[in-house]
Amino acid sequence: MTGPGAESGPGPQVGPWPETGARPLQEGIGPVQPGLGALTSGTGVAADAGGLEQHFEETIARDRRIEPRDWMPDAYRKTMIRQIAQHAHSEIIGMQPEGNWVTRAPSLRRKAILLAKVQDEAGHGLYLYSAVETLGADRADLTDRLITGRQKYSSIFNYPTLTFADVGVIGWLVDGAAICNQVPLCRSSYGPYARAMIRICKEESFHQRQGYELLMTMMRGTSAQREMVQDATNRWWWPSLMMFGPPDGQSPNTEQSMRWRIKRHTNDDLRQRFVDMTVPQAEALGVTLPDPELRWNAERDHYDFGEIDWSEFKRVIGGNGPCNAQRIAARRAAHEGGAWVREAAAAHAAKVAARAEAAA
Ligand SMILES: [Fe+2]
Ligand SMILES: [Fe+2]
Q: Measured in whole angstroms, how far is the alpha carbon of residue 303 from the centre of its chain?
C-alpha cells in the first residue's frame, strides 16, 4: 500500500485503492505438494512430537503454508478455528444490514447491484466455513455457537442502516476496512484460509468501488441526497475504525498471531493505513470525516486522527450495540426455518449413497 494520492488517471485523485491481493503467492498456494506435509515429509524429520513441532516452526519460518494434513500445535489450530469461524460469521451476519435495503433500492440497477453484493457475502461465508472445516471444526457446531452468542462476529454489523446512503458508505468504508484487514491474510500461514482470501479480496474490491460510485452519484444529486451521504459517513466512520480491533497495547493475541504469521500487521498499523487511504477519497467525494483532529502529519508521513471511543466498542462487542439482538434473532430464524432443507438434503444424500452401494 502506498501513500495518499498515489493513484493517478482521469478524474480526481481519490487516493490509492487498496491492493486487492492480485499478487500470487510465491509458494504453498497451489495444490498441496507431496513432501510438504509433516507426516510425508522427505526432510528426514523424525515423526515424534519434537520433530513435528520443529517441522511446523520451519515451515512457518520459510514462509510456506501449513496445510490441513500437516501437524500443527493445538493452540495454532484453535486460533485458526476461532479466527476463520468469526470471519465466516461476519460475512453471513454482514448480509443483514444491506439486505435491509434490497426491497427498497431506488432503481432496478441499484437493486441488482445490491443483490449481487449481498450474495457475494454469502459466498464468502460459505467459502470460509469450508476452510474452517479443514481444521476439523463442525459447521453445525459453529452455527450453534453463533446463534447462542458463544462465538463473535464483527461488531460493525450491529449498527443499523437508516437510509440508502448507508449502502454506499458500507461499501466504501466497511468493505474498505475489510480489504485493509484481509489483503495481508492472503499471505496467512494457513493454506486454505490464505487461498480463500485471494478470491474474497477481489470481490471486496468490487464492493468498495460500487459503494464509492453510489456515493459519487448521490453527491451529484440533490442537497437532501448529499446530506444523507454526510449523515451516513458521520455514523459509520468511527465504527469502521473500530473494525481493526483494540489498540496494539490491548490486543493480547497479536504477538502470537504475528509469530505464527497468521497476522502480518498490527491492528494500529492497519488502522493507520485505512485512514491514510480514506481521507483523500473523502475529499474527492466532498464529505467531511467526523473528526476535528484529523490532519496530515508531514513528520510522520501519515494522517493523525482523534481518540476512538473504546467504551462504545466494548459495549457493542459485549452484546449491547443497537442491533445485536436483532441480528442474532434473524440468523436464528433463518437457521431454524432452513431445518427442513438440511434434512431433505441429508435424506437425499443418504439415498444416493445407498443406491451407489447397491449398484457396486
Ligand atoms: Fe465479504
Ligand atoms: Fe464485501
A: 24
CA of 153 to the centre of ligand 1 (A): 13
Q: Is 122 exposed, middle or buried (0-12, 13-18, 19+ CB in 10 A)?
A: middle
Residues 213-216: contacts with CB within 8 Å, 24+ apart? 214/110, 214/113, 214/167, 214/168, 214/171, 215/165, 215/168, 215/169, 215/172, 215/285, 215/287, 216/285
Distance from Cα 72 to the centre of ligand 2, integer Å: 31
Ligand nearest to the CA of 87: 1
Q: Whole-angstrom Cα distance, residue 69 to residue 79?
A: 17
- The ligand that comes nearest to the alpha carbon of residue 123 is 1
- Which among 231, 225, 220 is positioned nearest to 161, based on CA atoms? 231
| C-alpha 224 – ligand 1 centre gap (Å) | 30
Q: 66 φ, ψ to 5°?
A: -85, 130
Please count the other Cβ atoms lying within 10 Å of the Cβ belonging to residue 26. Answer: 9
Asked if residues 267 and 248 have their Cβ atoms less than 8 Å apart, the reply is yes
> For 159, phi and psi rounded to 5 degrees?
-105, 150
pLDDT, tens digit, for every residue of 197-212?
999 999 999 999 999 9
- Among all ligands shown, which has an atom nearest to the Cα of 126? 1
The ligand with the least distance to the CA atom of 98 is 2
pTM greater than 0.70 (yes/no): yes
For the segment 21-61, what is each residue's pLDDT rounded down to a tens digit? 333 333 333 333 333 333 333 344 445 777 899 999 999 99
Q: 187 CA to middle of ligand 2, Å?
A: 19
Contact 182, 188 (CB under 8 A): no
First to last CA, the chain: 56
- Asked if residues 200 and 122 have their Cβ atoms less than 8 Å apart, the reply is no
Q: For the chain, how many residues are written?
A: 360
Q: What angle do CA 28, 32, 38 make, to 5 degrees?
A: 90
Cβ-based burial of 248 (10 A; exposed 0-12, middle 13-18, buried ≥19)? middle
Q: Minimum-distance ligand to the CA of 125?
A: 1
